Amino acid sequence: MKRLFLSDTDKKISGVCGGIGEYLGIDSTLIRLAWVLLSIPTGGFLGLIAYIIAAAIIPRQTSQ
């Protein structure tokens, strides 16, 4: 079963977009671009809040 984790290797701030990119199997740059484009209509406020919530909710992958 595939699970969503914060990325430890592909991160700029906390690894949210990198983790989503790894989960979906697409380039994290496209995720970052989509995040910014979807945040523009709200002045960036909702995008920032969503990013903070995602960083708090999505777990880090532990070594097993």
Count the strands? 0
Strand and helix order: HHH
- Average pLDDT, rounded to a whole number, is 89
Main β-sheet description: none
Which consecutive residue ranges, at least 5 long each, have pLDDT under 50?
A: none
Distance between the amino and carboxyl termini? 16 Å
Q: Which strand-content bin applies to the residues?
A: under 5%
Number of H/I helices = 3
Residue share in helix: 40-55%
Structural class: mainly alpha
What Rg, in angstroms, do the CA atoms define?
Answer: 12 Å
Gross morphology: globular
Briefly, what is this?
With 64 residues, this protein is mainly α.
Descriptive report:
The protein is mainly α and 64 residues long. It has a domain of 42 residues. It is built from three helices and no strands. Helix 1 crosses helix 2 and helix 2 packs across helix 3. The longest helix has 13 residues. The protein is globular. The mean pLDDT is 89.
